[in-house]
Amino acid sequence: MLDPLKDDPYRILGVARSATEIEIRHAYFTLVRQHPPERDPAGFKRIRAAYEKLRNATDRAQTDLFQIEDHIPAPPPAAARKLEPPAPAAIRSDLSALEAFLLFEDALAQP
């Protein structure tokens, strides 16, 4: 499983979420000079992948959307949820209300 914090392009490039495109580009070029592909191919690939996700407004919006979705907790499985059956008194009350509603509808429908 991917670690969302480890793969966060903002964290990789060392920029804030509010960074401008110029700040992102500057951070990218600074990191590429520190991790050139000849000396650190894995680091360069990681930096390049992060930059690709943030380099323009469209890619950045899509990345932000996926990161939001990744942080939404999944609902618990149905077996883990405890559903309490309704109390008999509540059922009787609901049935009485439904019966009264149906009688009222019938009375309105008759000429």
* H-E string: HHHHH
What value does the average pLDDT take?
83
- CATH C-level category of the domain at 9-71: Mainly Alpha
Poorly predicted runs: none
Largest sheet: none
- CATH homologous superfamily identity of the domain at 9-71: DnaJ domain
| Helix content percent band | 55-70%
Helix-and-strand structural type: mainly alpha
Shape: elongated
Residue share in β-strands: under 5%
Instruction: Please count the beta strands (DSSP E, at least 2 residues each).
Output: 0
Name of the CATH architecture of the domain at 9-71: Orthogonal Bundle
CATH topology of the domain at 9-71: Helix Hairpins
Alpha carbon gap, first and last residue: 67 Å
Radius of gyration: 29 Å
Number of H/I helices: 5
Provide structural commentary.
This protein has 111 residues and is mainly alpha-helical. The protein is 63% helix and 0% strand. The chain has helices at 9-13, 21-34, 41-54, 57-71, 88-109. Helix 2 (21-34) packs antiparallel against helix 3. The longest helix has 22 residues, at 88-109. The model has no long low-confidence stretch (mean pLDDT 83).
